[in-house]
């Protein structure tokens, strides 16, 4: 039986525009994308905050995917909102507006029924809050951590303090260089591993993923797609697929990590094919496994 995953992060309303269309106030947030992607593999326990304007139709998305929302707190006020725009370079979004609203005072309280979670994913929130989450959990088997340039630039010491307690760090290549203060990605990875995490997974957008574990390096390409409409949430979908598969197989070794990175890449590839959660939320496991096999064929070669 799959182990449960605790995810702590944001649930938001996203408004976005790409060269291929636009969407207004759709369901988003790091914890949302992670939870939906991971739910195809393992049971999910969600901790986040929303405002009094959060509609029941969005809760239905979590119910559809059997996500435990006992830790999703609703308080008076407006839900976190983000507005962004992409050019033809879909690797980077231009933020037009951020309204933290109820998320600004979010202090995650982990329900007692979640304290025994074996797998924990700390989504992109204040590193001091991420550390407070770990202090509420008993003895998780694996802790994975995400962050962003905002926290690395503004709360570097808090980020470093928190990552001493995590097993896996999942960040993009620019954040890797910034955190290590080192332009070379390989040297940056070594410096970060000296800070605590045994495994560093570097997200590189359309160029794929690199994993460093101190003894070897593993690289996976991004899946070649004919249609890419919206990259919002791709990194969180990758993390959800990776952690979801890890918890499903419940194996902690390099072979498992490599396999789970491909599952993460599969979920990210589905995510970008339509706006928001449209594609990610409408999958079945056969589609996921079929694309996993396509990934294997894409990267296989004989010596």
Outline the structure in words.
It is a single chain. This protein has 303 residues and is α/β, with parallel strands linked by helices. The chain has one domain: UDP-N-acetylmuramoyl-L-alanine:D-glutamate ligase. Helix content is 35%, strand content 24%. It contains 10 helices and 13 strands. The strands form 2 sheets. It has a 9-stranded mixed β-sheet with strand order 5-4-1-8-9-10-11-12-13, with helices on both faces.
**In what range is the share of β-strand residues?**
15-25%
Helicity range of the residues? 25-40%
Overall pLDDT score: 95
The assigned structural class equals: alpha/beta
Distance between the termini: 37 Å
What is the CATH architecture assignment? 3-Layer(aba) Sandwich
Oligomer: single chain
| CATH topology annotation | UDP-N-acetylmuramoyl-L-alanine:D-glutamate ligase
Name of the level-1 CATH class = Alpha Beta
> How many extended strands?
13
Number of helices: 10
Poorly predicted regions: none
What overall form do the CA principal axes indicate?
A: globular
Radius of gyration: 18 Å
Write out the CATH superfamily name: Ribokinase
What can be said about the biggest beta sheet?
9 strands, mixed
- Strands ordered across the widest β-sheet: 5-4-1-8-9-10-11-12-13
| Total number of distinct structural domains | 1
From N to C, what is the helix and strand string? EEEHEHEEEEHEHHEHHEEEHHH
């Amino acid at each position: 039986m799959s182990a449960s995953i605790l995810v702590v992060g944001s649930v938001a309303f996203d408004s976005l525009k790409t060269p291929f269309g636009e969407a207004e106030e759709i369901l988003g947030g790091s914890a949302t994308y992670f939870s939906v992607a991971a739910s195809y593999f393992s049971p999910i326990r969600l901790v986040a905050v929303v405002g009094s304007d959060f509609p029941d139709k969005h809760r239905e998305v979590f119910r559809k995917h059997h996500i435990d929302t006992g830790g999703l707190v609703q308080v008076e006020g407006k839900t976190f909102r983000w507005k962004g725009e992409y050019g033809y370079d879909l690797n980077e979004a231009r933020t037009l507006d951020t309204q933290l609203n109820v998320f600004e005072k979010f202090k995650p309280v982990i329900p007692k029924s979640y304290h025994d979670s074996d797998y924990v994913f700390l989504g992109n929130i204040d590193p001091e809050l991420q550390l407070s989450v770990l202090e509420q959990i008993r003895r998780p088997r694996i802790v994975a951590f995400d962050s962003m340039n905002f926290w690395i630039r503004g709360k570097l010491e808090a980020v470093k303090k928190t990552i001493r307690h995590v097993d896996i760090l999942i960040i993009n290549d620019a954040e890797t260089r910034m955190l290590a203060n080192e332009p070379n990605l390989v040297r940056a990875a070594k410096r970060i591993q000296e800070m605590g995490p045994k495994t560093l997974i570097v997200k590189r957008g359309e160029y794929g993923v690199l994993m460093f574990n101190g003894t070897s390096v593993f690289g996976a390409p991004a899946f070649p797609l004919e249609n890419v409409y919206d990259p919002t949430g791709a990194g969180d979908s990758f993390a959800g697929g990776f952690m979801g598969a890890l918890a499903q197989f419940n194996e902690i070794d390099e072979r498992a990590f490599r396999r789970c990175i491909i599952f993460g890449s599969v979920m990210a590839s589905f995510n970008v094919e339509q706006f928001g959660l449209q594609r990610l939320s409408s999958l079945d496991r056969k589609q996921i496994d079929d694309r996993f096999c396509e990934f294997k064929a894409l990267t296989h070669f004989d010596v």
